[in-house]
Automatic annotation (TrEMBL):
NCBIfam families: shape_MreD
Name of the protein in its database record: Rod shape-determining protein MreD
The keyword Protein biosynthesis belongs to this UniProt entry's keyword annotation: no
InterPro entries registered for this protein in UniProt: Cell_shape_determin_MreD_prd, Cell_shape_determining_MreD
Subcellular location: Cell membrane
Similarity comment: Belongs to the MreD family.
Tagged with keyword Cytoplasm: no
A Pfam family matched in the record: MreD
Transmembrane segments: 52-80, 100-119, 139-156
GO cellular component, one term: plasma membrane
Membrane topology: Multi-pass membrane protein
Keywords: Cell membrane, Cell shape, Membrane, Transmembrane, Transmembrane helix
Amino acid sequence: MKRILICAVLITVCFLLETTVFQKLAFASIIPNLLIIVTSSFGFMRGQKEGMIIGFFCGLLKDILGGNLLGFYALIYMLIGYGNGFFQRVFYDEDIKLPLALIAGSEFLYGVVIYVLLFMLKSDFHFLHYLRHVIMPELVYTILVTLVLYQIILHINRRLEEEEKRSASRFV
């Protein structure tokens, strides 16, 4: 129950930061995608199921408070969380290279999917322009923010796992 509450608070805080503080810190109207960082992190830290659940709620929050189609972002984030869950077996929390690579890959994939579904299907075929001016700058900004936010998420996950182990050992 405590994990659910902390995850809900983390998702809400990241969404609020993304839609308020980082709107003011935007570079050329590009903001980092904090919800991708949260979704990817929980995916490779906790597995496919939790990655999907966190991704669903991140996307649903984005759909409800800013999207045009209900479930559009929920589906995208859910798939990103699920995909990152495949890397749980090779995840070591001391190594930051894998999380950075997975978050960068998730952000790139997210940008390409958004382009295909929201622009290309409307006959906007300027992919290189979108890649150069939206996808890559957002990816770089997200990676820079990941260096700080990932450490916070990792610390929260470690504390929750320690507490879960202590409470489980009391019942055994």
